[in-house]
Specification:
This protein is α+β, with helices and mostly antiparallel strands. It is built from 4 helices and 4 strands, in the order βαααβββα. It has one domain. About 20% of the residues are buried.
């Protein structure tokens, strides 16, 4: 999970003491791979009624904080192996045409940068693991050539 450097929640938490705990509940569910609490989903989600145009157009998911009818929302983007938390906001993003355009434009470049950085880190980790495996294989080959058999594990 990645929290966008553009994520600013302190001012949103003022006067709403339970809001931070609701965000932490969702973050914990994401990290643990658990389902979200029922209150996080909008009414009608099972029937996609009305359709979530922000999700379908930009891939930006919104979760309600504390209650299905809450106007406090957590916006995030899901990728194959990670989630990027974008912002806390409200339904005003759905009043734009197309819905969420400004939210997406504000975060688009930073999310792309975060994804590029994550991919580069993964490539480096994969290369390091491949190098380690090659060295271990070479060590085993040398041991076999010199008459030593590798230990069984």
């Amino acid at each position: 999970m990645i929290v966008s450097p553009l994520f600013k929640a302190d001012s949103y938490y003022r006067g709403k003491p339970d809001l931070q705990q609701h965000v932490l509940d969702l973050v914990e569910a994401i990290v643990d791979g658990d389902p979200f609490p029922d209150w996080a989903y909008r009414s009608g989600i099972d029937h996609d009624d009305p359709p979530d145009r922000l999700l379908s157009r930009y891939g930006v998911m919104h979760l309600h904080l504390g209650a299905k009818n809450s106007n406090d929302l957590l916006f995030l983007m899901q990728f194959q192996d990670h989630v990027v938390i974008l912002a806390i906001g409200n339904h005003r993003h759905f009043a734009e045409e197309p819905p969420g355009k400004l939210l997406y434009q504000f975060h688009e470049a930073k999310v792309a940068e975060l994804n590029r950085l994550r991919e580069e880190q993964q490539r480096q980790a994969d290369a390091k693991a491949a190098l380690k495996a090659a060295k271990e294989l070479e060590t085993k080959k040398k041991a076999v050539k010199s008459g030593f058999l590798p230990r069984k594990r």
